[in-house]
Amino acid sequence: MPYAPQPRLHQLGEADAAFIYSDSEHANSNVSLLHIYDQSTAPNGVVRFKQILTHIASRLHLLPVFRQKILRVPLDLDYPYWAEDENFDIEYHVRHIALPKPGDWRQFCIQASRIHARALDLQRPLWEMYVIEGLDSFLDLPPGSFAVLLKVHHAAVDVAHESQITTLLHDLSPNPPPAPPAPPWFAHAPPSPLTLMWRAGFHAVSFPLRLAGNASDGLGLMALSIKTVAGEFWHRPSDFPAIRFNTVVSPHRVFDTRRFPLDEFKRISRLVRGATVNDVVLAVCAGGLRRYLVLQDELPQDSLLAAAPITLRNSAQGDDSFSWVRVSLHTNERDALRRLKAIRATTSSSTVKAKATRAHGLCDAASHAPALAIAATSKMMRAASARLGDWTPLANCSITHLPGPAAPLYLLGAQLTYLSAIMPIADGMGLVFSVTSYNDMLVISFTGCDEQLPDPEVFAQCLRDSFQEYRALLPAPATAARATRKTAQPTQTT
Predict the structure, then answer these.
(1) Per-residue pLDDT tens for 7-60?
(2) 313 in Cβ contact with 348 (< 8 Å)
(3) Please, where are the H alpha helices in 191-271?
């Protein structure tokens, strides 16, 4: 009978362990969630740092991994474990800073990038939170707005299902009912190195039995899913062009973002029959990437590829889900509308759908596939670069989808007005787009290496210009309204 782990101690799976093992001096698997709040909606119009600290402490039981640290097995003979931190100190993890004056958006992006790039302490729970004030020069923000940056290691939290983090931070009302007292918490002592070695030996001996007997519940499924996902990314076409973002990255990051009305993405999707909002996102990112490379005189003749989500229709439940696959961005197409049509044809093709469905059925590909592929190959690519001076990247970039809530959220009464994310990058994949949706707004952000992308504000403007190019194709409101009324009229019979 398999060994039953002690309470409050559990082992990382293969995918999460890969994120831990892939961390290096210049690339780590940190994910940073960015929130900006309007504190005028809070009681008395003020939210104080001490209130936030108390609020987080009262909800840590909702996400136990926030009080657990990594426990490595001696000699790395087995995957690490999550063990409770006997020296947990919430004031180490929740910090208070302010931007220097004038406190503009560029300063905020630089500060957020620096925080994100710093490695987390593997001897402590793998998260840090920064309450950032001094956002006085932000456009379109009420006075007194503040930000919360939550940095988490990808091994700790599945950010594609970040409802647990949302629950930890927020309420659905500015005046929620009083929460029940948090349950008492006392850390359990971690197992000894000898116990961990015994577990590793048991797992090694029992692995063939578990693989053959119950692959769906053991390591067999994860191994199979990783092979499937990795196979999709490693079997790359021979004409895959490499660009500046497919080289070795530096330890420093850049980040910027642009926010758009979600309704306008829906309107743009109607320009092409069957197109989805996700297709428009791909087209806008492709247009922005194309514009930037044209400015650098570096646009390849062949289309660039992205590790990107495509929409899968769930016939059983009647809703949509996402899965990852490598798709062409059709950056070799100059015309924006034709590019959107080509992307729609690509994402709706039976071959792409079959690959995405296969990956979606084997593992949670919507959350792990691109990051796992980056993590699993980063060190390999650095070694290959040192030996051979050349290697083929996994894709030119990746595009991550983080769907957020449609209703307003509140932190101690302060309304959340902005939600975005800074994602991990690694050697060979130095550009990642993160797409977040919240309260009828859609935010496209990008994370890059400062040496590969020294002018992030230019890249951000290229994204904005790409969106405006599609927006200009929309019919005027009066024309659209007449077309809608004409379509809605019943057919006359004689």
Answers:
(1) 478 888 888 888 898 888 888 999 999 999 999 999 999 999 999 999 999 999
(2) no
(3) 193-213, 219-234, 262-269
* Structure token pair of residue 450: 């400062």
HSE-CB of 327 using CA atoms within 13 angstroms: 35
Q: What are phi and psi of 130, to 5 degrees?
A: -120, 120
Strands of the sheet with 94-98, listed across from one edge: 94-98, 127-133, 146-153, 30-38, 414-422, 410-411
Cα 321 from Cα 233, distance rounded (Å): 21
Main-chain phi, psi angles of 74, to 5 degrees = -50, 135
Please state whether the predicted TM-score (pTM) of the whole model is above 0.85: no
Measured from the Cβ of residue 432, the count of other Cβ atoms closer than 10 Å reads: 26
Residue 215 class from Cβ within 10 Å (0-12 exposed, 13-18 middle, 19+ buried)?
middle
Summarize pLDDT for 294-339 with one digit per residue, the tens. 999 999 999 999 998 665 555 444 444 556 688 999 999 999 999 9
Class level of CATH domain 220-407+423-481: alpha beta
- The span from the CA of 373 to the CA of 9, in Å, is 27
